[in-house]
Each structure stands twice: as C-alpha cells, then as structure tokens.
Design a protein that fits this description.
Elements (H helix, E strand, L loop, with lengths): L1 E3 L2 H13 L4 E6 L5 H13 L2 E6 L19 H11 L3 E3 L3 H4 L18 H4 L3 H16 L3 E5 L3 H13 L5 E5 L19 H6 L2 H14 L5 H12 L5 E10 L14 E10 L2 E10 L8
Parallel strand pairs: 1-4, 2-3, 2-5, 3-4, 5-6
Antiparallel strand pairs: 7-8, 8-9
Helix pairs in contact: 6-7, 9-10
Length: 290
C-alpha cells in the first residue's frame, strides 16, 4: 500500500488510475481505525479496482471546546490496518496541505444540515462539506463509501454531490457494533469502564423505539418519548437530542405513514465523551396495503 501526503501527488495518482480505465473508490476517515472503518474499506474493495482511504483529522469540523486536540491518532497503526483491509493508498495530508495560508473558501449545505447535529455543533457540517469537497477533488473517485452511524452526514454529502454535480456514487454501509450493541467509534476509547457499560443505553433506546414502530406506533412524539425514557435510565447521561424523522429529508411529521422509512436518532454525552447512534426502520404497511 502506498502512503501519499501530497495533494498534487494524490491527484496525479488518481489521474493515472483513471487513464488506465480503473474505477476508484474513496473511504474518507479521520483515522484511528476500528472494525467499522475497516468494513468500509472492504466494501470499497468490492466496488472498485482501486481503493483510496483518506486519513485527515479535519480541524474545521470541530467547534470550540471540542476534542480536536485529543482526538486519537496513530498513523503507523492505521497504515497497517488499512493495508490489511485492502486499501491501495492511504492519503494522509497535513493540515497545511489541505488548508494552505490564505485559504478563505468554504462549502455550506443548507436545509438537511441545520438540525440535530447541525444545531448542537454549529459549523460542523460546513467543515464536513468543505473537506469532503476537497477530498473528492484530490482523489477523483467514482464511488465514495460512508458509514450509516453518521446518518445525517451522509444526507449532507448526498445533497452536496447533487448540488455541485459531482460524478460520484455515494454508498452507505451499515453501522458495525460491539457484541453488546454499542456502535463502534474512535471516541469510545475516551469511555471509562463504567461509562463503557452505560453507553449501551443508546442502542437499547433505539431498539425499544424500533420495536414500537414495527409494532404499529406511528406517532412521532410517542417514539421520541420512548427513546428518552430509556436514555434517562442512566442518570449520568446528558441527552443532546432524541428524535424520529423521515430518513431522507429529516422532516418530523406528527405521524409517520405506512411504508415510510424512519431514522431514529440519538446523541448524548457521558462524562467527557459525546456519543451518537441511529437506526433505520420502515413503517409496516397495513395488511391490505402490502
């Protein structure tokens, strides 16, 4: 596997692969790989001739007081894991390479970026949209693979691709979980042993609301109340939001319709760690509608 740190070298590599008729897949990441990241690389391997994994802890998507400085980093470890998973290139530029002196341009996706994560992390999705744009221009992919755990981010990226006419297919791969249901995340390393056990409450809340939805509950507020009820069983948990919304638009109707795909979303803080998770559920159709 090749390690590339230069933006120009990355573009030249991608140009050469495209000229050779190869299909390129990119997996954008911030590194400190776990099995969730590696599953994205393996999925990309199935979709393309060349797999480029990007590793960049993007400062512009972190707000004041967030964990940019302490975000876990281990390039040697990640390089080994990415190669084992099937990546052909690890693109790991410096901040100075991606944001040179005098940099003044940003990308903003309105609408789908403004609630939930967007409300609790102002500027976050502008940072995401900007770096994804720059990474697409650097790696020149035919397809990009993202994880479902950051569901709202995938909607922002899809809107970005549509609006700016990127010729890139977006593939969303399922969330990879620990045996007890906790969604894998690089930030899980922040959790103390007690917090690690308590953190499974997010998954339990999602499964409880899923069971209600699949059992016929269509009222959004009832689903939100169910999520919050389970989350509050851990007093130390500080809830940012618990929500049920249309999976494609993030609209929040009073009641969901048969056949509609709903995303259940939770975000909360446990000690110094912020956790997010989600679940996609299709509202059952009535027997006569099936």
């Amino acid at each position: 596997m090749e390690l590339i740190v230069s933006l120009r070298q990355m573009q030249q590599y991608a140009d050469a692969r495209r000229c050779a008729g190869h299909r390129i897949a990119v997996v954008p990441t911030m590194g400190y790989f776990h099995q969730g990241h590696l599953s994205l690389i393996r999925r990309a391997r199935e979709l393309a001739d060349v797999v480029i994994t990007t590793l960049f802890v993007n400062p512009t998507q972190f707000g004041p007081g967030e964990d940019y400085e302490r975000y876990p980093r281990d390039l040697d470890r990640d390089r080994h894991l990415a190669e084992e998973a099937g990546s052909d290139v690890l693109f790991a530029p410096t901040v100075e390479e991606m944001y040179p002196g005098g940099y003044t341009t940003t990308v903003t996706v309105h609408g789908v970026s403004e609630k939930f994560e967007g409300a609790f992390r102002p500027g976050h999705f502008q940072g995401v949209a900007t770096i994804v744009t720059k990474l697409f221009l650097a790696t020149k992919p035919h397809v990009a693979v993202f994880g479902q755990k950051d569901w709202q981010q995938t909607l922002v990226v899809r809107q970005l691709v549509r609006d700016l006419n990127f010729d890139v297919d977006i593939v969303v791969a399922p969330t990879v979980r620990e045996p007890d249901g906790l969604a894998m995340s690089s930030r899980n390393v922040y959790l103390s042993p007690q917090e690690r056990q308590q953190a499974t409450v997010l998954y339990r809340a999602l499964q409880h609301a899923r069971s209600l939805l699949e059992g016929g509950e269509r009222r959004r507020q009832a689903l939100v109340a169910a999520l919050e009820h389970v989350l509050r069983s851990v007093p130390e948990l500080q809830i940012d939001y618990a929500a049920a919304a249309d999976a494609l638009t993030l609209d929040e109707p009073d009641q969901f319709l048969p056949g509609q795909t709903v995303v259940l979303l939770v975000a909360a803080r446990l000690g110094s760690t912020r956790l997010i998770d989600n679940e996609l559920v299709q509202v059952p159709r009535r027997r006569e509608e099936a």
